[in-house]
Design goal:
Nucleotidyltransferase, domain 5; 12 helices; alpha/beta; seven-stranded mixed beta sheet; DNA polymerase III polC-type; 23% strand; DNA-directed DNA polymerase activity; Ribonucl_H
Length: 350
């Protein structure tokens, strides 16, 4: 019999039948994206019986649609890998039969996986209240960690492994994190030095993801070239895709709407101070698009990115996010692209 780390690896039908004999299931999915119409392309899950991993399943599924190149870059799953595989919707419906009131369901951001597996109206969603989320546990037990992503939580708990973004591997590491977190008696507060080191590691994580973003968009022929004219100013140019930082208090949304969702644009970013409100006089970065001031960034982001704009006035790349929530509300936002954040510093010193 096939196995994963010495644990029997079975088909989804056998896994569903065996779930009735177990007290806990850890699950992860890989999908075609995060948007409302995304579909599952891989289910990975682990059954726990008498406190120990007992059985696992790992199944690639045919989503019945094109697979974005960015997902291939992230997961290593190619469209050809999914050809001839079981239908995603059918297998998700079957897998849902394993979710009952008698089994504890664990995942990292488990609400996302339940929604992807069951759809918006599937009755399994009623069991979300009987699930445990390692994301929530980590936020409680690692309260000042800079990030609570699965990769960050693995690292902070002493697991020196790179998250593979494959369903079964991520389910396995979610189980290991859950097992360790549930043994923690009181919150673990990181020292300032530990927070700083973790921010450096998060910067490395973001660089890997940024490289994947670039590769994926090029493979999808979606390009990353700004669609507007670069400001004709004698200023430094910073071209990076490491970290998108939200511009707050966005004005002139009609200007962003003219470019549309998922547009990349040239902007000018200038160090200044907030002019009104309770934070008036505090340092910030103001963003200008086509000569029009759009907004600034929050004090928290300023503390994480102060000193990163060359000379305090430079030309950068920005992105109009293609988020379903923005579309539903009919709004357009902007994210300026800065280097990975450093540890929080006093912007007055830069």
């Amino acid at each position: 019999m096939a196995d994963y780390k010495g644990i029997p690896l079975v088909s989804i039908p056998e896994f569903v039948r065996a779930a009735a004999e177990c007290e806990m299931m850890v699950v992860d999915t890989e999908t075609t994206g995060l948007h409302a119409g995304a579909r599952v392309i891989e289910i990975g899950a682990l059954l726990v019986r008498n406190g120990e991993p007992w059985m696992v399943c790992d199944e690639l599924l045919d989503p019945g649609c094109d697979l974005p190149a960015g997902i291939t870059v992230l997961t290593g799953i190619k469209e050809s890998d999914l050809q001839g595989k079981p239908d995603s919707e059918d297998m998700c419906r079957l897998f849902c039969e394993a979710v009952t009131p008698d089994i504890l369901v664990v995942g990292h951001n488990i609400r996302f996986d339940l929604r992807m597996l069951g759809g918006a109206h599937h009755p399994m969603l009623q069991y979300a209240a009987m699930s445990e989320d390692t994301l929530d546990l980590a936020k409680t037990l690692l309260p000042n960690a800079p990030s609570h992503s699965l990769q960050a939580v693995m690292r902070l708990l002493g697991f020196d492994e790179i998250e593979e973004h494959r369903a079964l591997s991520d389910a396995w590491w979610t189980w290991r994190c859950w097992d360790r977190l549930t043994d923690v008696q009181q919150p673990i507060v990181l020292s300032p030095r530990e927070v700083g080191l973790e921010r450096i590691r998060l910067g490395e994580d973001r660089k890997r993801k940024a490289a994947g973003l670039l590769t994926g968009r090029r493979m999808d022929d979606r390009g990353l070239e700004p669609v507007n004219d670069k400001p004709s100013l004698d200023l430094p140019v910073l071209e990076t895709y490491e970290c998108g930082v939200n511009v707050s208090h966005v004005e002139h949304c009609e200007l962003l709407a003219g470019y549309g969702y998922d547009a990349w644009v040239w902007v000018r970013v200038e160090r200044g101070v907030k002019e009104t409100g309770p934070l008036a006089g505090t340092p910030t970065y103001w963003t200008w698009l086509d000569g029009v001031r759009i907004g600034d960034i929050t004090p928290l982001q300023m503390a994480r990115h102060c000193g990163q704009v060359p000379g305090g006035n430079a030309i950068l790349i920005a992105h109009v996010p293609n988020r379903q929530a923005d579309k539903d509300r009919g709004v357009h936002n902007l994210r300026i692209q800065l280097p990975a954040p450093h540890e929080e510093r006093d912007p007055e010193e830069f």
